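CORE FACILITY INTAKE
Project code: CF-77B
Contact: R.S. (postdoc)
Sample description: multi-component assembly, two entities in total
Requested service: structural model of the whole complex
Turnaround: standard
Below are the sequence entries exactly as provided by the requester. Do not edit them.
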Amino acid sequence: MSSAGARHEAAIEEVWDRVRGTDRAVVVDSPPGAGKSTLVRELAKRLVAVGEHVPIVVQTNDQADDLVIALAGAGLSTGRLHGQEWTPPTGWPRTKVRTGTKLGELGGCDVIVGTAAKWAFVKADERTWPLGVIDEAYQMSAAALVRVGHLFDRLLLVGDPGQLAPFTVADEHSVRSLATWPLDTAAGTLLRHHPDTPVIPLPVSWRLAPHTAPVISDAFYTRAFTAGAAPTDRRLELASLAHPALAHAAEHGWALLELPAAHVPRTDPALVATLADLVHQLVTADVSTVDPSGPRPLSRADVAVGVVHRDQKAHVEAALQRRGVTGVTVDTANRLQGRQYEVVLAWHPLSGRRDASAFHLEAGRLCVLASRHRQACVVVSRAGVEEQLHAYPAAEPVWLGTDPPQVDGWEANRAFLERLAPHRITAR
Amino acid sequence: MSLDVYQRLLALSRARAVPAASRAHRHLSPRPWLLTGYHLAGEPSAPVAIRYGSFRDSPKLLTVAEPRDRALRFAALGGLARDLATYLSRYTVTEPVVRATGSGRELEVDHCCVDAPQLVVPNEATAHWVGLLGQYLRTLDDPVLAAAGAHLGWIASRRHLPGSSVLLTATDLLTAHWRTGQLPTEDGHLGRLLAWIEPPAGADAWQAARDAEAMPPAGPASDPSWDQVVLRPALERAKQQGDVRRLKLAAAEVLDGAWRDTWAAIDLVRMLPPGEHVAKRWESDRWSWTRHRERVLAGTVSFSARLSDVPAYRFLHELETRTAALERQMALDDPLVMARYLATGEAVAGVVFKRDPEHTVVNSGGRSVLRPLLWVRTAAAFDRPAGTELWWGKVGMVVRGSTDDTVELMVTSGAVTRPKLNLLPDTDAEVVLAPFGPLQYFPDNLPDELPWPTRSSRPKPAPEPEQDDDLDTDLAPAAPAAAAVDLGGTPGRVPGPRADPGDGVPAGGTAAPGEPRGAL
């Protein structure tokens, strides 16, 4: 146990040495829940302590809000650079924080946090910084990096390589004809152009449970990691009569709940109802989550449903509202990136589909859905995904001018399913 | 439920295509230039025969008696180049346009061509071929051929921009407005597609489609048995006896089907009233044509087969902006397109049966603000959750709750002050609440040159080997961003194409960096 802690500490110190060194850029690869947010907070503290001002680029407003709350909690005077429509979330700190739509309104702040889209409006002739920090650098596109890169002399990029690749609403084929690939990840494009950049992996996931981390590490990552928690540290206590899938997941960390095989519309009503029923049972039954800090009742904020499409989100949310359940997060993989819950129910991307398109095969999508939990993850799917995978072998062309993805989506899907086979529960 | 799937099944059961649009969503020129032709098997740069022109009943015909003979080929293409120049010369009249510049506060007068040329071809393969011919011709020394190459290059580059109507394919025209019961790939065959939309009296679509498949292909690849049985003897005869009559007759006959089918596709779409935003999108094509002409006159036309650096990023921004704008405009223009969003549940239709225009809420600043409430009776349950945002024109609202046949909404923008309450729908008004609000325009925020993280710090290796344009057939030249995007909802302001860096023109084109782009 202490060895996991020691390896983590060693990685942190290596990052700090690199940040204080001469490398123009440093990349930190962080698997899910490896302490990335803590790392960013810790580095910001150390940098402020040596008199630096720290600009931090994040990808979404939620991430920015979370980070500002954490930084202010650590006693740093923090500025939140935001857009016109932004309103402070609940729990917004009363002290140590300034907010503004313009850089000028944040004078005196040691740390300034904003989304990449907002930073893009800052002009380099206004101000530049010796070092910039980019959080979620694998979620950010090269196109976003191009718009902020000139603001910083050096960069620290922190991110999870198992995230979803940046996407576009435009016809991707037209973009593929470019000599540059603007939808590469920010970290990917930086490493491509500056191959000598040091990459420091964080070796320990503090989020994932000991019995779920190996599956994620094997299926979705090229740099292996382990769980920081010991097998006896955590457990989920369910009342009797719990759904077999929940009971199984409580014990083993995983459950794969399979509905009868069928080709169904994207908003599969049976899957919607199953997910809503499972959530309803989780939040109304007497469930406790136990970890070294002691037992506590599972709250609604501890549960999330991960889906693939926005219309699935809408249908699941509406089904929950009909069951009188509110306060449970339902969102797409895209928006769940960087978030963590005790229990996650995941809509398998390939469930009920006739084909296996590149979108639904993307390794990052399944990885995000399967790696948001601390205790347990229930994957809900129509049966027959294996057959579907074998009927649609990966046929993505190799594109000139871009690096192939580190992890092949088809193989990741297959490997994940294979590891989940012992946890298969057939729905009645 | 996807309306698209339903319409395809409906077409299947009726054995006839069903309308997928009630408006024309492509601009149709009153005088398009059509082109259909064949090249030698496996040699796109060796045209065998091309039928082209603006007159349905008197097309021009180009034939090359020995397609492998470059002198003969260029002589024949020279005729096409001159005819193209004559056609394009009709589109040189400009009109003064007042438009905003820079930050949008200053006005200036610019000149835009009142109309632009339009090329219509039978299918995607021919559109791609046009681009290849452009690449081939523009590198030649002959000024007439090179100019035609530059024009064809510009025309082909517009094909990649959603909403552009400079280069239309008949298959796209039809699939944008009708759904057939056959596979989407089969829709790529113009004859089959027309058979589904207008089967001959008494025949069902399947039979008509099979009959259409028996006809000569629309090109640019010819039927191998025709090559063998008709073309080869005709070419022999032309070569040995200098008699091209047989070749011309054979070419005219074999290209006639695609020629008439392409006109038929135009006729079909012309019967639909144009969508309201079509003219606005065509305006962006007119600006692009205007800038292209200026570059041709100034001798600064240049093309890159593949964009790189900042123009590549600008192109992505352009594509994304145009894709979103086109989707929104088509839905707002056309009830049948909006029906797709009703079918998926993204939009909701119904009758307002109750209103509370005086409803207020206390905002975060503690002030009481007007937030009118509306109740809408719907035909089907609206299954999106509370908090979903919907729009009725410029009036924005969020869903507060729904039952099996009602939706309760709170107006959050567009009609939240007393003077604007008259903009709310009346009781008993039929409304369609759509997921499309007034389109916001985001500047591309791109720097003039790539910042250090996104370019290599090491000195560039030797210049890249010369691109062989004829080789990169799969990667058609992508058009870089044209600034003139119709973003809708900005009346009185003309898209600012002054800095339009031009289609097919990479960085270092005519637009100086820092010039205002899209003053929208």
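Facility notes:
- Chain A has a mean pLDDT of 91.
- Chain A touches chain B at residues 24-25, 87, 120-121, 124, 142-143, 145-150, 155, 168-171, 174-180, 182-183, 186, 189-190, 193-194, 265, 311, 314-315, 317-318, 321 (CB under 8 Å).
Invoice: internal transfer
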